[in-house]
Specification:
homopentamer; alpha+beta; Beta Polymerase, domain 2; 7-stranded mixed sheet; 11 helices; rod-shaped
Amino acid sequence: MLINCVAYQEGKKLADIPVEEISEYLARPGYFVWVSLRDPDPAELARMKDEFCLHELAVEDATRGNQRPKVEEYGDSLFAVLQTVELVGDEMTVGEVDVFVGPNYVLSSRRNASEGFLGVRARAEREPHLLAQGSAFVLYALMDAVVDRYFPVVDLLESELEKIEDRIFIRGSQRANIERLYELKSKVLMLRHSVMPLMEGVGRLYGGRVPALALDTQEYFRDVHDHLYRIAGTVDTIRDTISTAIQVNLSMVAIDESEVNKRLAAWAAIFAVFTAFAGLWGMNFKFMPELEWKYGYPVALASMFSVAGYLYWRFRKSGWL
Amino acid sequence: MLINCVAYQEGKKLADIPVEEISEYLARPGYFVWVSLRDPDPAELARMKDEFCLHELAVEDATRGNQRPKVEEYGDSLFAVLQTVELVGDEMTVGEVDVFVGPNYVLSSRRNASEGFLGVRARAEREPHLLAQGSAFVLYALMDAVVDRYFPVVDLLESELEKIEDRIFIRGSQRANIERLYELKSKVLMLRHSVMPLMEGVGRLYGGRVPALALDTQEYFRDVHDHLYRIAGTVDTIRDTISTAIQVNLSMVAIDESEVNKRLAAWAAIFAVFTAFAGLWGMNFKFMPELEWKYGYPVALASMFSVAGYLYWRFRKSGWL
Amino acid sequence: MLINCVAYQEGKKLADIPVEEISEYLARPGYFVWVSLRDPDPAELARMKDEFCLHELAVEDATRGNQRPKVEEYGDSLFAVLQTVELVGDEMTVGEVDVFVGPNYVLSSRRNASEGFLGVRARAEREPHLLAQGSAFVLYALMDAVVDRYFPVVDLLESELEKIEDRIFIRGSQRANIERLYELKSKVLMLRHSVMPLMEGVGRLYGGRVPALALDTQEYFRDVHDHLYRIAGTVDTIRDTISTAIQVNLSMVAIDESEVNKRLAAWAAIFAVFTAFAGLWGMNFKFMPELEWKYGYPVALASMFSVAGYLYWRFRKSGWL
Amino acid sequence: MLINCVAYQEGKKLADIPVEEISEYLARPGYFVWVSLRDPDPAELARMKDEFCLHELAVEDATRGNQRPKVEEYGDSLFAVLQTVELVGDEMTVGEVDVFVGPNYVLSSRRNASEGFLGVRARAEREPHLLAQGSAFVLYALMDAVVDRYFPVVDLLESELEKIEDRIFIRGSQRANIERLYELKSKVLMLRHSVMPLMEGVGRLYGGRVPALALDTQEYFRDVHDHLYRIAGTVDTIRDTISTAIQVNLSMVAIDESEVNKRLAAWAAIFAVFTAFAGLWGMNFKFMPELEWKYGYPVALASMFSVAGYLYWRFRKSGWL
Amino acid sequence: MLINCVAYQEGKKLADIPVEEISEYLARPGYFVWVSLRDPDPAELARMKDEFCLHELAVEDATRGNQRPKVEEYGDSLFAVLQTVELVGDEMTVGEVDVFVGPNYVLSSRRNASEGFLGVRARAEREPHLLAQGSAFVLYALMDAVVDRYFPVVDLLESELEKIEDRIFIRGSQRANIERLYELKSKVLMLRHSVMPLMEGVGRLYGGRVPALALDTQEYFRDVHDHLYRIAGTVDTIRDTISTAIQVNLSMVAIDESEVNKRLAAWAAIFAVFTAFAGLWGMNFKFMPELEWKYGYPVALASMFSVAGYLYWRFRKSGWL
């Protein structure tokens, strides 16, 4: 679905143009074309391929979708794949933004991402001097928008982890903890898969051998890289902490189990005393003098309770009860 | 077993040629020979070695089979080993495709792989401009076919993992889970062994110092590398998740065990009360006034049941029952 | 909040100058301006941006705060982010110091850090020859101060670990140990996040391609790098030891549990003997000759105790009691 | 102990020569000397040092033995240390082969290795064109022989692992499994110690900056490297699988334990019912009407068995029995 | 404390010289000064700094002590920090050797190390041709001495590990094993901290860009590096094995626990049979014909024992007893 197809001259919006005229505008010097697609069908992409003279392999990737994030050079143009990460309720969905960048055009196509990038275009149109920096700046602006949307996701994952941590040493919550930790881990892995390859790709847009297109915007891409690096650091800490938390959770199960076992065993011992004594005086020997005593029964009861009480006191003291 | 032995001129199929004439065709400029073998015996390979002037060590590798995936340069020719991975029922079988690539020939030999590569040749013959790009393009097409067949395998491993994950928090399924996780892990390791070394090998066919043969097809090999990278990422996520799942499964065993233990202990306590009381009134003391009461028995029963009921209510409340 | 705004000439303090005159002083050769801010608001930073001609992205980072440690080049100036780590009671707080370094100025801004860097300025003013080495030396001095404050934190973490280790093989302390280990681990991860990226950043200030500013102070930055390396080594040892300690702690829980279980089972066996014997002689068979014996009861008691005693002795011998 | 000391001319064996004449032969162009030692004593090595002008440090290493595998350059000669790995019964023994390689000589010395390398020399003498390739080819041939002997060891370790895996999910074999896994792991580590450093060393004999000696045999050393790489891959898979297997084994212990516990608890419950009922009717209350009934006893027995039967049926259904 | 302060000329000892004359000797060509200190105080080091014109930062490091091992270049001189590791009884102590190396001097200072390096000096003085190789050779000799002393420590750690391994599958030794493994691990980490950074430092003294001082002694430093590499390999194997051993030990606890549990449960079942039967015949029903039988009692006993015996036989058979 075509969202926008606009020609710019010296950073200023000229007009919405029909798709068929794109190649004409590209041929005229000083013009710049910026097209946005959403969930494009193969036919749409094929038309774009003809208008922009895109590379076959790049278009194939964009048509298939489901690519890993990357930044690839095709001659003097770039092909970037970004992944958007959105949290809808408790579910994390991963979308994709494919960006074709040439010397005087940008073609972006998003899939499976509910939030668009109209704000990026609006801001770019408000500040013509930015747009005048060329197509790499548009790529930067799109990347920056995508990466900025990772931060709230990371924050949510962090706060989810903190919530679990608050309950990790509480008895009886281990089953829920482990389920939540497991689910959190899979979300973290998903986010990591969006962040790490992109970081690698962006790393090639500043510093060393940089594509001609991006030569003047290196500091901007370094900034994006830096944001990704920060996210990656947090993500790794979360992963590391989840592993430890799972281990600790298992320890807590074992410790709780062992405490419950001790308590039960203590009570079992106290009851066993009663039963053993009662069994003793329930024997049918003819000559058991205490059975004949007048106060035999209360004395028996008293001795039973005193032994049980002594045990109770000892178990209490050694922390078993 | 010889499958095909075809000479091409300017991308178009000329004729099936006998093996003995290969060296003659290779000597004439503008010709291109493409031979396919299946489960070749040493004699067949030796003949090929003579016709194509292949390097001794490469032929030795192809004869022995059972090589790790790799891409090696021998002078101006390449020797590539690919591994095919096929899922037959629940079993994963690993086959091998050895490809010898020279400036004007391709010799491919597959072993232990049920599915062939006729489709690759058919497509190449349908589109002569592709074949005209030379032998490296054929190597790319074969690699692409092999790598494309990894994707359904990865998908199956992923869906197997998801099936296990659906059962991981269900009581009583831990034994089956752990067996399936263990089996899944060994399959994942097998796939990884096919993917990782190939990725390393393909990485040398684009970007830096590239063999002369592959200079014009770098973008295609980058595409293959990119596919492998994506598979490798998924494979590593599966591995990581399996490790966590094994750990979590162990935790679940411990948690279930501890819950069952609590429930049993609670019932044991209730029965112990009955037994202790019964033992008490089964003692043979002469003077136990309650034994003489008319309603002694029902009162005894009532007190036993009320204590047991109280315990039941307490255990219920604290979640043990 | 502005703390200091001082102009220097040939290493010697000239005067406190108003913010508006900074750009004038910077324009005159031989002058050097050093400004310190604390928890600056965006307006303050915007003013500084104008006076010092700072790069937009660097100022944005400093305005937002919450950056990872880094050292970035912007043309011939540097932008460094350092993290301060302070232990207040049992809590670890992370602050931030942003340093803008140009050929003839240093602008430092600290956030969320209770302790300032007046000592650094005082020492620099006392020893004009140091300050005469230029702005990179001031950057070094600030870094050195920040990094020196990591050492007591590391020492505290180490001694906390040692305290836990002293208790790790003591029965009954496992629950507390595991909680403390978990908390210690999260502190260690925080410190690591301050140290590792800074180490990477400082690594680019000596050795290879060094920014022009820092050419003459390479040995100083190597020294900072070396300190960070030492801290990183200790931090990694602590992490490694914590992992082992958690594992060992779990083992200790299992071992203690198994010892307690054995002890309980031994006592249960002894009581079971009593109960079984008593049950035997509590049966109501008509013809049980021993019940009629005169010394039946004491003999019965004696045999019960001797069997129990035998069991006690055996359990003792095999280390169960 | 001297095994062989032979001079060759243009690849053909000339004569066995006495040790004292080695230096003379080396001085004449076109000659090649190949000496083999076994478990040499220091004096022997000292003599060799003089004849071949070997480097002090290399000779020291060979004298001491017990070196890690490596390939070192000393001027225009090479010093290689290889480790042989032999399985004698169930024991793995590690031997050492030290090879000194100069432009026109090879001196090899093996220690603690039962199998020699006469086959290598015999083959080399049969095919003079191979030997004519120079001393690096001899080094390659020795390495190839050593590395080829790793394969059966790896196969044995793999089949041992498979044997353990077959028993890993079988109840009651956990103790044996864990012992065998532990032993297997230590063997794997030993083999890894022979393979990894050698791989690193061989890696320097092809591709990048290659010692002059080995310039023409690069493809051969790449082949050795490739074999080592394959072994290393298998070894790492075995290690990884052992770790998982140990973890899984622990899980199986826990699962079996928990199943046994449930079964025992179920039987305990059934017996507890009997005991509780019997205790009830063993009480001595005067007025317990059912005790007087004619069919009281059989009814009591019947009710006991029916409750026990009900429990048995329930436990069966829920899979505890 | 000054130990030695000697001037050499062309490798031969000239005289012990007073500290004040060091700078004079250094100024004369052809002279070489070698000073050894032990636990120097700051004043001593300050004096040395003046005499040798040492770099401020290096002297600061030596004064503070407690440095990580490293090799640093300061202009044309080197500053090396080595750590000595000594086993006194069961304790491992880490000392430090700081070595300042200039073109014509060596200043070594050891701290907290009981064993000195007089042997190194003695040997150097005995063999003047070695000393004539210059100051880098002295550095090598000191390093070699320090590194040689790591070997017995590694051997001791290995044999300690073997001792623990011998006991790892023995019942009842798990608590002691885990304590010893934990202690061993911390020693191994200490040693690793001495070895790894030094290896990195020494790695810069041969091969690539080597400091001018060390150009002629590269092969010696490669030898030291090789020794360190060997130690590092062993240390990593020990670490790896300790981790596995801790895991295995935990498994053994679980296995033993589960075996003991089965045995206890079996005995409990046997006793429960006695108790249930006895309870049965202890009931007070009026009409229980077997109670009246003449041989009721012995028959009862016989049936009890036969059931118990049957259970015993079954448990025996299934390996529980």
